[in-house]
Amino acid sequence: MRILVIGKEGQVARALAERAAAHGAVVTLIGRPLLDLADPSGIGDVLAEISGDVVVNAAAYTAVDQAETEPELAEAINGIGAGAVAGAAAAMNLPVVQISTDYVFDGAASRPYGEGDVPAPLGVYGKSKLLGEQAVAAATANHAILRTSWIYSPFGRNFVRTMLRLARERDEISVVADQVGAPTSAHDIADGVLTVCRNLLARPHERSLRGIFHMTAAGSASWAEFASEIFARSAQLGGPTARVLPVSTSDYPTPARRPANSRLDCAKIAAAHGVTLPDWHASLQPCISRLLTEPQS
Ligand SMILES: NC(=O)C1=CN([C@@H]2O[C@H](COP(=O)(O)OP(=O)(O)OC[C@H]3O[C@@H](n4cnc5c(N)ncnc54)[C@H](OP(=O)(O)O)[C@@H]3O)[C@@H](O)[C@H]2O)C=CC1
Ligand SMILES: Cc1cn([C@H]2C[C@H](O)[C@@H](COP(=O)(O)OP(=O)(O)O[C@H]3O[C@@H](C)C(=O)[C@@H](O)[C@H]3O)O2)c(=O)[nH]c1=O
To answer: What sort of enzyme, by top EC class, is this (predicted)?
Structure first.
């Protein structure tokens, strides 16, 4: 199985590269400057030059707050760019896997969101990702859109790395306690994506394998609970730790509004693809251990 991954330095892209061999897959990472999602005209030509069996778009404009002041760029990359990737995959008769987000929902529900719930993004990032979902679905029926949440890994920018950095600078950190979701390991996402890719290739005409799926870690937490667990694990491993001061969203103002309830119901992908990601607690320890022992990039 040869997988063309859009995204070179991103968390999910790098995790896909690391997990590929375990799934008998070969991954080619494609990113800037060769392929720029903000300039969709060249995407088809770039993909046509590299052989593959399936395309995974793991690249996106992910700066949630900054997106509020750069809506055109976020929508170009996450909306139009994602659609162009799917169009190029369709032209080559390849399935496409698009990674999307919990931030397409407004978080007002009091239960986990299902795939049939109507998205209503609160901010520019979520809106741009929803545009991407719609563009992918319009470009090809041969797609799987995987909505996940709160990704962390030893790479790039994520909440675990932010907390460990802040704990080296201060004794106490204020963290919102009224936004709840599922912290999800990029490596667990990579395992799920690779399984989905294999299923799409093995059963090219099966409609139940295609469409939108929710795919997060099992379990849930508030950002404050997540931070506390990060510091508990870090302390066990001799790493930095800090006191967590739980605060409300109104006490921690940010340019972009975020959903209070980010929980996603993952029953559909379990039934269709046989994918169930581990509980978030289980995958946190190996990530922190790696962060504390390996040189960082
Ligand atoms: N991070 C999270 O918590 C969540 C993310 N998601 C989604 O999962 C996917 C993967 O996210 P994650 O791995 O965290 O992403 P990262 O933020 O770690 O990396 C994003 C990647 O996208 C690339 N990129 C950004 N703009 C462009 C562009 N114009 N052209 C080509 N590549 C570009 C970046 O490239 P470069 O290195 O050149 O900057 C980078 O490699 C995304 O679709 C994201 O929306 C979903 C839920 C949660
Ligand atoms: C750094 C920090 C954040 N927070 C809050 C702000 C926010 O409500 C929450 C998370 O903040 P961050 O900016 O780290 O995370 P954020 O960029 O909102 O994370 C999101 O990224 C995009 C790409 C997604 O798709 C989402 O699933 C989600 O993972 O924690 C604190 O309360 N204290 C802090 O010290």
So the answer is: oxidoreductase
